[in-house]
Amino acid sequence: MAVTRMGLLRTPYMMASFRRNLITSNSTQMAIKNVVVIGGGLMGSGIAQVAAQNGQNVTIVDLDQKVLDKAKNSINISLQRIAKKLFKDDSVKAEKFLSDSMAHVTLSTNPEQAVNQSDLVVEAIVEKLNIKQKLFQTLDAVAPTHTVFASNTSSLPIGEIAQSTNRKDRFVGLHFFNPVPVMKLLEVIRIPETSDDTYNLVMEWGKSIGKQTVTCKDTPGFIVNRLLVPYMMEAVRLLERGDATARDIDTAMKLGAGYPMGPFELLDYVGLDTSKFIIEGWAEKFPENPLFKPVPTLNRLVEEGKLGMKTGEGFYKYQKK
Ligand SMILES: CC(=O)CC(=O)SCCNC(=O)CCNC(=O)[C@H](O)C(C)(C)COP(=O)(O)OP(=O)(O)OC[C@H]1O[C@@H](n2cnc3c(N)ncnc32)[C@H](O)[C@@H]1OP(=O)(O)O
Ligand SMILES: NC(=O)C1=CN([C@@H]2O[C@H](COP(=O)(O)OP(=O)(O)OC[C@H]3O[C@@H](n4cnc5c(N)ncnc54)[C@H](O)[C@@H]3O)[C@@H](O)[C@H]2O)C=CC1
User: Fold this and answer.
1) What's the CATH code, domain 2-216?
2) Whether 152 contacts 175, CB under 8 Å
3) GO BP, one example (predicted)?
């Protein structure tokens, strides 16, 4: 199924539905108009892009102006790929789609100021509980009362992140997948305190940006990562035992199980630092679970600064962009 996913996107039906998504979401009376995405890395830039290309005003916030400039550039490149597909026979429309979408993107290094006018804040910063809590605590003091807060965390309990705020009824997990502009899924995580209004609003928002939503309780890894992360870690253990090479394990999972990427390609794509934070956090919290045991190879590569595609080397080497 996974291998055919991208193939299916190329069929007329999928293209029509992709277009319909864009059109529907643009014409929907939306409650969420102003979105702030905190963290302009791999995920933040993708989340900002899908909101902007669906007509919402988006501010991307990061600590580093260089990251923000890079995020804007990668959004531009990704939008060009989409525009080419959507409007392949109409360069005027393609150019308008690109410029309209880009016009919806603002950059900022000042989170407190950025959230001033926000309806929704989506956090996509480093996978560390205390850093996320500190950020939300600061934002809670300055954001408008109606603003909904969401974390894109891969593995941390939404309830523990929300603890740092006084708006648990307006707090959810919104877990996107990499690459955000292509992956259709959005996991929506509600904590016991999340109000029905908040839940309904973010479910609607998910649809408005062209995503298929699924709902999951606040459980480690939600649905996808609870299955995917142990699988990737087991692949590293297979490699560590010397049972097969990374290349052969990847080839096996692509050709034998139909995955679009093998586990090592996927680890490099997700980021080895992020993957390490996920497994370390779970190992600390659930030391009795053998699926969550840390893997030394991952720790070593991260120590060496080999974080995957984003640094040019992880399990494999990449040409720097
Ligand atoms: C860690 C977490 O918390 C959760 C996670 O995210 S886990 C990770 C989840 N993600 C995955 O599992 C990704 C698995 N990999 C894939 O699905 C695919 O390899 C891939 C979509 C990344 C790339 O697909 P590919 O066929 O190898 O490459 P490529 O031909 O470049 O791209 C396929 C299509 O997607 C488009 N595309 C890829 N990346 C894109 C991007 N960033 N923006 C816009 N379009 C993009 C391409 O233009 C191409 O479109 P056409 O088929 O219409 O030409
Ligand atoms: N990489 C992946 O495939 C996925 C990651 N996630 C989650 O998304 C979050 C972000 O991951 P990535 O985008 O991969 O990381 P990344 O490392 O690419 O980007 C994180 C960005 O956050 C910025 N940042 C850190 N602290 C900040 C702060 N206090 N204020 C503002 N900006 C800050 C950094 O400068 C960096 O640009 C993590 O929680 C991760 O677990 C979720 C789904 C998939």
Assistant:
1) 3.40.50.720
2) yes
3) cell differentiation
Domain ranges across the chain? 2-216, 226-311
Please answer whether residues 149 and 173 qualify as being in contact, where contact means their C-beta atoms are separated by less than 8 angstroms. Answer: no
Q: Is 102 in the pocket of ligand 1 (CB under 6 A)?
A: no
Tell me the CA–centroid distance for residue 260 and ligand 1, in Å.
9
Q: Whose CA is nearest to atom 11 of ligand 1?
A: 178
**What ipTM, to 2 d.p.?**
0.97
Catalytic residue of the set 57, 152, 225, 275: 225
> Which of 3.40.50.1100, 1.10.1040.10, 2.40.170.20, 3.20.20.80 is the CATH number of 226-311?
1.10.1040.10
Please say if 17 is a catalytic residue: no
Q: Which ligand 2 atom lies nearest to the CA of residue 45? A: 13
What percent of the chain is helix, strand and coil (3-state, nearest 5)? Answer: 55, 15, 30
Q: What is the pLDDT along the chain (321 residues), one digit of tens a residue?
A: 333 333 333 333 344 444 434 433 333 344 899 999 999 999 999 999 999 999 999 999 999 999 999 999 999 999 999 999 999 889 999 999 999 999 999 999 999 999 999 999 999 999 999 999 999 999 999 999 999 999 999 999 999 999 999 999 999 999 999 999 999 999 999 999 999 999 999 999 999 999 999 999 999 999 999 999 999 999 999 999 999 999 999 999 999 999 999 999 999 999 999 999 999 999 999 999 999 999 999 999 999 999 999 999 999 999 866
**Nearest alpha carbon, ligand 1 atom 34:** 6
Other Cβ atoms within 10 Å of 116 Cβ, number: 14
Whether residue 67 has its Cβ less than 6 Å from ligand 2: yes
